[in-house]
Design a protein that fits this description.
Length: 177
Protein backbone atom coordinates (compact mmCIF):
# COMPACT_ATOMS: atom_id res chain seq x y z
CA UNK A 1 0.00 0.00 0.00
CA UNK A 2 1.12 3.56 -0.56
CA UNK A 3 1.50 4.83 2.99
CA UNK A 4 0.66 8.39 2.01
CA UNK A 5 -2.67 7.50 0.41
CA UNK A 6 -5.58 9.37 1.95
CA UNK A 7 -9.19 8.24 1.69
CA UNK A 8 -9.93 11.11 -0.71
CA UNK A 9 -6.98 10.21 -2.93
CA UNK A 10 -8.03 6.58 -2.95
CA UNK A 11 -11.62 7.44 -3.87
CA UNK A 12 -10.28 9.59 -6.73
CA UNK A 13 -8.16 6.64 -7.95
CA UNK A 14 -11.18 4.35 -7.72
CA UNK A 15 -13.33 6.85 -9.67
CA UNK A 16 -10.69 7.15 -12.38
CA UNK A 17 -10.44 3.36 -12.72
CA UNK A 18 -14.20 2.77 -12.51
CA UNK A 19 -14.94 2.38 -16.25
CA UNK A 20 -12.41 -0.46 -16.54
CA UNK A 21 -13.57 -2.42 -13.47
CA UNK A 22 -15.55 -5.66 -13.62
CA UNK A 23 -19.21 -5.66 -12.59
CA UNK A 24 -18.35 -6.94 -9.08
CA UNK A 25 -15.56 -4.44 -8.56
CA UNK A 26 -17.83 -1.63 -9.78
CA UNK A 27 -20.38 -2.60 -7.10
CA UNK A 28 -17.65 -2.38 -4.46
CA UNK A 29 -16.39 0.93 -5.87
CA UNK A 30 -19.89 2.44 -5.69
CA UNK A 31 -20.30 1.20 -2.12
CA UNK A 32 -17.00 2.76 -1.07
CA UNK A 33 -17.82 6.05 -2.77
CA UNK A 34 -21.24 6.29 -1.12
CA UNK A 35 -20.21 4.95 2.30
CA UNK A 36 -16.60 6.02 2.77
CA UNK A 37 -17.23 6.99 6.40
CA UNK A 38 -18.37 3.44 7.18
CA UNK A 39 -15.67 1.52 5.30
CA UNK A 40 -13.21 2.03 8.15
CA UNK A 41 -15.62 0.38 10.57
CA UNK A 42 -17.43 -2.36 8.66
CA UNK A 43 -16.11 -5.88 8.26
CA UNK A 44 -15.37 -7.59 4.99
CA UNK A 45 -18.45 -9.83 5.33
CA UNK A 46 -20.73 -6.81 5.82
CA UNK A 47 -19.25 -4.96 2.88
CA UNK A 48 -19.49 -8.00 0.63
CA UNK A 49 -23.13 -8.58 1.61
CA UNK A 50 -24.04 -4.93 0.99
CA UNK A 51 -22.35 -5.04 -2.42
CA UNK A 52 -23.90 -8.37 -3.40
CA UNK A 53 -20.49 -10.01 -3.88
CA UNK A 54 -18.35 -12.62 -2.16
CA UNK A 55 -15.67 -11.51 0.35
CA UNK A 56 -13.03 -12.75 -2.10
CA UNK A 57 -14.19 -10.04 -4.54
CA UNK A 58 -13.55 -7.41 -1.85
CA UNK A 59 -10.02 -8.79 -1.42
CA UNK A 60 -9.55 -8.71 -5.21
CA UNK A 61 -10.73 -5.10 -5.20
CA UNK A 62 -8.19 -4.18 -2.53
CA UNK A 63 -5.39 -5.94 -4.42
CA UNK A 64 -6.42 -4.22 -7.66
CA UNK A 65 -5.63 -0.90 -5.98
CA UNK A 66 -2.27 -2.02 -4.60
CA UNK A 67 -3.21 -3.23 -1.12
CA UNK A 68 -2.27 -6.59 0.32
CA UNK A 69 -5.89 -7.20 1.29
CA UNK A 70 -9.06 -5.74 2.74
CA UNK A 71 -7.52 -4.85 6.11
CA UNK A 72 -4.91 -2.63 4.50
CA UNK A 73 -7.54 -0.92 2.32
CA UNK A 74 -9.78 -0.47 5.35
CA UNK A 75 -6.90 1.12 7.29
CA UNK A 76 -6.89 4.08 4.87
CA UNK A 77 -10.51 4.83 5.72
CA UNK A 78 -10.03 4.08 9.41
CA UNK A 79 -7.09 6.53 9.56
CA UNK A 80 -9.22 9.16 7.83
CA UNK A 81 -12.01 8.57 10.34
CA UNK A 82 -9.55 8.81 13.24
CA UNK A 83 -8.30 12.16 12.00
CA UNK A 84 -11.87 13.44 11.79
CA UNK A 85 -12.77 12.55 15.37
CA UNK A 86 -9.40 13.05 17.05
CA UNK A 87 -8.84 16.19 19.08
CA UNK A 88 -7.18 19.00 17.17
CA UNK A 89 -3.41 19.05 16.90
CA UNK A 90 -3.44 22.78 17.68
CA UNK A 91 -5.15 22.20 21.02
CA UNK A 92 -2.64 19.51 21.99
CA UNK A 93 0.28 21.70 20.94
CA UNK A 94 -1.01 24.66 22.97
CA UNK A 95 -1.37 22.54 26.11
CA UNK A 96 2.15 21.12 25.66
CA UNK A 97 3.54 24.63 25.14
CA UNK A 98 1.81 25.85 28.29
CA UNK A 99 3.24 22.97 30.29
CA UNK A 100 6.74 23.29 28.81
CA UNK A 101 6.86 27.08 29.11
CA UNK A 102 5.47 27.37 32.59
CA UNK A 103 6.21 25.98 35.98
CA UNK A 104 4.55 22.72 35.00
CA UNK A 105 1.39 23.69 36.84
CA UNK A 106 -1.48 25.17 34.88
CA UNK A 107 -3.98 27.42 36.55
CA UNK A 108 -7.63 26.46 36.37
CA UNK A 109 -8.19 29.55 34.21
CA UNK A 110 -5.52 28.41 31.71
CA UNK A 111 -7.11 24.98 31.49
CA UNK A 112 -10.60 26.46 31.07
CA UNK A 113 -9.42 28.84 28.34
CA UNK A 114 -7.73 26.03 26.41
CA UNK A 115 -10.80 23.83 26.80
CA UNK A 116 -13.05 26.58 25.45
CA UNK A 117 -10.62 27.38 22.61
CA UNK A 118 -10.52 23.71 21.62
CA UNK A 119 -14.32 23.49 21.73
CA UNK A 120 -14.67 26.61 19.58
CA UNK A 121 -12.14 25.23 17.11
CA UNK A 122 -14.08 21.97 16.87
CA UNK A 123 -17.40 23.76 16.39
CA UNK A 124 -15.92 26.04 13.69
CA UNK A 125 -14.61 22.99 11.85
CA UNK A 126 -18.05 21.38 12.11
CA UNK A 127 -19.66 24.57 10.80
CA UNK A 128 -17.45 24.67 7.70
CA UNK A 129 -17.86 20.96 6.92
CA UNK A 130 -21.59 20.61 7.61
CA UNK A 131 -23.44 19.24 4.57
CA UNK A 132 -27.02 20.62 4.74
CA UNK A 133 -28.58 17.81 2.69
CA UNK A 134 -26.87 15.07 4.69
CA UNK A 135 -27.78 16.83 7.94
CA UNK A 136 -31.46 17.07 6.95
CA UNK A 137 -31.46 13.36 6.09
CA UNK A 138 -29.88 12.56 9.46
CA UNK A 139 -32.43 14.70 11.32
CA UNK A 140 -35.30 13.01 9.48
CA UNK A 141 -33.94 9.58 10.43
CA UNK A 142 -33.52 10.59 14.07
CA UNK A 143 -37.03 12.02 14.30
CA UNK A 144 -38.51 8.77 12.96
CA UNK A 145 -36.45 6.58 15.32
CA UNK A 146 -38.01 4.99 18.39
CA UNK A 147 -34.76 5.05 20.36
CA UNK A 148 -31.59 7.09 19.87
CA UNK A 149 -28.31 6.56 21.69
CA UNK A 150 -25.81 9.41 21.66
CA UNK A 151 -22.14 8.62 22.08
CA UNK A 152 -19.42 11.24 21.84
CA UNK A 153 -15.67 11.26 21.81
CA UNK A 154 -13.44 13.91 23.30
CA UNK A 155 -14.01 17.42 24.48
CA UNK A 156 -14.32 19.24 21.17
CA UNK A 157 -17.81 18.01 20.41
CA UNK A 158 -19.16 17.58 23.94
CA UNK A 159 -21.31 20.71 23.72
CA UNK A 160 -22.71 19.47 20.40
CA UNK A 161 -23.71 16.13 21.94
CA UNK A 162 -25.41 17.88 24.86
CA UNK A 163 -27.29 20.19 22.49
CA UNK A 164 -28.28 17.24 20.30
CA UNK A 165 -29.60 15.29 23.30
CA UNK A 166 -31.59 18.33 24.42
CA UNK A 167 -33.01 18.95 20.93
CA UNK A 168 -34.02 15.30 20.60
CA UNK A 169 -35.74 15.40 23.99
CA UNK A 170 -37.69 18.48 22.88
CA UNK A 171 -38.55 16.84 19.58
CA UNK A 172 -39.73 13.67 21.32
CA UNK A 173 -41.87 15.70 23.70
CA UNK A 174 -43.41 17.46 20.71
CA UNK A 175 -42.15 20.91 21.67
CA UNK A 176 -39.71 21.32 18.79
CA UNK A 177 -40.65 22.06 15.17
Amino acid sequence: MLSTTSADQLVQRISAAYPDLSKQLKAIALHIEKNRDHVGLEGIQDMARQCGVQPSAVVRFAKHFGFSGFTELQAVFRDNLSRQIAPGRNYQARIRDLIAGGTGKLSSTDIAREFVAGSIEGMQELQTKLDPAAFKTAVDLLVRSECVWIAGARRALQSLFIALAYALELSHAGTAP
